[in-house]
Amino acid sequence: MSRIPEELKYTKTHEWFSVDAGVATIGISDYAQQQLTDIVYIDMPKPGDDKKIGDVLLTIESVKSAEDVYSPVNGKVIEINMELEKSPELVNEDPYKNWIVKIKLDDEKYNFLTAEEYKKYIGE
């Protein structure tokens, strides 16, 4: 069973995000990292990249597959988690502590699922 923190927002493509002071912190859900299995590489976006909701934000490669991660918000990439460039497997260890990217919001438009809705969506 996946861990799904109540305070976060989720997407149907298995990203999580939180918003604080106009900045979205984004990662992948516990469910997503379990499906990927052993993560070996994350193709990070560049700081300064503009992203719209639904744009491919980055790609995560595991021993099993490569999967796109989509932007849940509109804005500009302002920070990437540099630790993950050296140790992408940290996402497997704790996908909520090991966020992937931060985006400065252009607006507060985003569609998301609550933790309860996400649990139902993934069948837990």
From TrEMBL:
NCBIfam families in alphabetical order: gcvH, PRK01202.1
PANTHER family given in the database record: GLYCINE CLEAVAGE SYSTEM H PROTEIN (PTHR11715), GLYCINE CLEAVAGE SYSTEM H PROTEIN-RELATED (PTHR11715:SF3)
Modified residues (N6-lipoyllysine): K64
Keywords annotated in UniProt: Lipoyl
Top-level taxon of origin: Archaea
Presence of the UniProt keyword Magnesium in the record: no
GO CC annotation terms, alphabetical: cytosol; glycine cleavage complex
GO BP, sorted A to Z: glycine decarboxylation via glycine cleavage system; protein lipoylation
TM ranges: none
Quaternary context: The glycine cleavage system is composed of four proteins: P, T, L and H.
Function of the protein: The glycine cleavage system catalyzes the degradation of glycine. The H protein shuttles the methylamine group of glycine from the P protein to the T protein.
Family matches, as InterPro entries: Biotin_lipoyl, GCV_H, GCV_H/Fam206, GCV_H_sub, Single_hybrid_motif
Co-factor binding details: Binds 1 lipoyl cofactor covalently.
Family: Belongs to the GcvH family.
Species the sequence originates in: Acidiplasma aeolicum
Cofactor(s) the protein needs: (R)-lipoate
SUPFAM superfamilies xref list: Single hybrid motif
Entries under Pfam families matching the protein: GCV_H
Residue stretches making up the Lipoyl-binding domain: 23-104
Stated name of the protein: Probable glycine cleavage system H protein
